[in-house]
UniProtKB/TrEMBL annotation:
Region (Disordered): 1-25
Family per similarity comment: Belongs to the FMO family. Belongs to the FAD-binding monooxygenase family.
Pfam family, one: FMO-like
Organism (species): Micromonospora krabiensis
Protein name: Predicted flavoprotein CzcO associated with the cation diffusion facilitator CzcD
Keywords: FAD, Flavoprotein, NADP, Oxidoreductase
Keyword Endoplasmic reticulum recorded: no
A molecular function GO annotation: N,N-dimethylaniline monooxygenase activity
Domain of life according to the entry: Bacteria
InterPro entries linked to this entry: FAD/NAD-bd_sf, Flavin_mOase, Flavin_mOase-like, FMO-like
Compositional bias (Basic and acidic residues): 1-10
Length: 466
């Protein structure tokens, strides 16, 4: 495995100077990719195929990003499986084995990314154990990228690049709620990012807060391992089974999308299917959803309703406040958990970039991008993988990076089309690629994969003059 300490320094032209007088190694037309997770890997691969030199910086010691459970920032736990099925998750030019299950385990995913990196000879472009601490735009749409060894050891080093791909992921910085009295609570409190194994739940009275896919998974494991499990949600959700009509649910949904079945008809079919299978979930004590299906990211879990129906998961409303030895709920009930798990999601963080570069003028952490990838006024910068699709994300990240590679190529060979692309970025930044969705941080990056891929195809056609 290559590391930043056992390979030669990248070749560069003589030193330039940064704005504050620091020496800068000019990397010419080379592109910098930040992160060697799935999105970073496909960016490196597609930039290489389009003839660009690439330097990729990865803060950890291996590829895989969030799917590498050895990494400090990985949210993966022992039982993690895909929630999108294999054909709708794999890279389009590197299929997963047909012998794999419909929903592969995280260890299989990591092996898949390692083989992808080896097959396309990507490791020789990756500087492992190297973190990016600063990315600054400079004249001529170029970028100064400052790096150092992970953990802050060793000197900083600044290199100048023709373009930058940000692929640092958005599921690693925990979003923690604030509750009255939480600081005085004497039980154990943890975020789901720290959850790794059911042994952490065994024999305890557990309260799981949050109804995302991770929260539901942890609640199901608590139902089997804990002495008692409460599952707290602020609102009602639609719980999608992983299989419908004998097929993975996302494959059935995609068939309807391919037939251009209108949203309202798909919503009716979904409700009809639920009525035939699990019926009215409010009879179990689950709150009624306050939105129509497909207006939030789907909760893909076939076991939650089973355990609620068997009484091993107790649905409860939101937390009102904490006391030293218990929790008061918004309906006035009191419960006494020993362990509280906040499965309350993550917030995007681009700590090496000025937020305004990505159009975050409000300071909320939410970028304003076209196609969830391209920033206004910065045509040589792209964010890859900042998506929450109704299917797998890797296919979408692949096409994002293909689009960026062709944009960079157009800047050299078809500048008028690249200029039109930049104008479209300005006009369409913040455009949505899904139906009506809830306005919460959890749904900031929600896209319908079919609509999104059509939009990417239109952008590719515009660069080709079609």
């Amino acid at each position: 495995m290559s590391t930043s300490t056992d390979r030669p320094e990248p070749e560069a032209t003589p030193l330039a100077l940064s704005r504050d007088g620091r020496p800068v190694s000019d990397r010419g037309d080379t592109v910098c990719v930040i992160g060697a997770g799935p999105s970073g890997l496909t960016a490196v691969k597609n930039l290489k195929e389009h003839g660009f030199g690439v330097d990729c910086y990865e803060r950890e010691t291996g590829v895989g990003g969030a799917w590498n459970w050895r990494h400090d920032r990985s949210p993966v736990y022992a039982s993690t499986h895909l929630i999108s099925s294999r054909p709708f998750t794999q890279f389009p030019d590197f299929p997963m084995p047909d012998s794999w299950p419909d929903y592969p385990h995280h260890s299989q995913l990591l092996g898949y990314f390692e083989r992808y990196a080896d097959h396309f000879d990507l490791r020789s472009h990756i500087w492992f154990g190297t973190e990016v601490i600063r990315v600054e735009p400079v004249e001529g749409d170029r970028w100064d990228v400052t790096t150092r060894s992970t953990g802050g050891y060793g000197p900083e080093r600044t290199s100048r690049y023709a373009a930058v791909v940000v692929a640092n992921g958005h599921n690693w910085s925990p979003k923690l709620p604030r509750y009255e009295g939480l600081a005085e609570f004497r039980g154990e409190v943890m975020h789901a990012s720290s959850y790794k194994d059911p042994a952490q739940l065994r024999g305890k009275r557990v309260l799981v807060v949050g109804a995302g896919n991770t929260g539901c998974d942890i609640a199901v494991e608590a139902a089997q391992q804990a002495s008692r499990c409460w599952h707290s949600t602020r609102r009602g959700y639609w719980y999608a089974p992983k299989y419908v009509l004998g097929r993975p649910a996302d494959q059935v949904n995609d068939a309807l999308l391919a037939l251009r079945v209108p949203l309202r008809v798909r919503q009716w079919l979904y409700h009809w299917t639920l009525r035939l299978t699990v019926g009215d979930l409010t009879r179990f004590g689950l709150p009624a959803p306050d939105h129509r299906v497909y207006e939030t990211h789907p909760i893909a879990n076939s076991q939650l309703v089973y355990h609620v129906g068997h009484g091993t998961i107790m649905p409860v409303p939101d937390v009102a406040r904490f006391g030293p030895y218990g929790v008061e709920l918004t309906d006035g009930r009191h419960i006494d958990p020993e362990l509280v798990v906040f499965a309350t999601g993550y917030l995007p963080r681009f700590e090496f970039l000025d937020p305004k570069v990505l159009g975050d003028d409000s300071g909320t952490g939410r970028p304003t991008l076209w196609l969830n990838a391209f920033a206004v006024g910065h045509p040589t910068l792209a964010v890859v993988g900042l998506l929450q699709p109704d299917s797998g994300v890797f296919t979408l990240a692949h096409w994002q990076s293909v689009l960026f590679a062709r944009l960079l190529d157009a800047r050299r060979t078809r500048p008028e089309r690249a200029a039109a692309f930049a104008a479209a970025t300005t006009a369409r930044a913040g455009e949505r690629y899904s139906g009506q969705v809830k306005d919460s941080s959890r749904h900031w990056f929600e896209v319908g994969h079919a609509d999104y891929l059509r939009a990417v195809q239109r952008a590719l056609d515009s660069l080709e003059g079609k």
